[in-house]
Predict the 3D structure of the following.
Amino acid sequence: MTATVSRLIPALPAEVWETLTSRDAMKEFMQGAVLVTDWTVGHSIKLKGQVGGEPFVDRGEIRSFEPRKRLSYTHESAAAPGKTHLVTFELAEKGRGTKVTVTQTPDQGIDASADEQMKAQYEKTWAMILRDLEAAVLN
């Protein structure tokens, strides 16, 4: 199961990349989560925030970092310990804009058939995040 969502953002890849990888900007489009990482492949990434007033810390590892092109990391939700997805953002210049595609694929500890039932919800969440990414880029 792979959840995939794309959005054309009316900005150059460098502008989108700057927002995508900025700690302050990421808080705007990742539902208020605070990012902790140095973006080095093999290093950790943490997203800290609150859901329904309850604190959480999601964890993962940076898998790829190709400026203005591709970024991927594993993601283990605090709500589902031991279950990891691979999240990938890909940027492609399209005219005067940037097509941003995010994919989420099962990684360690994920039952692919059970995960398939969540695909629509994952895509809805990523569509909202890409909408908020566009708003952050254009601010």
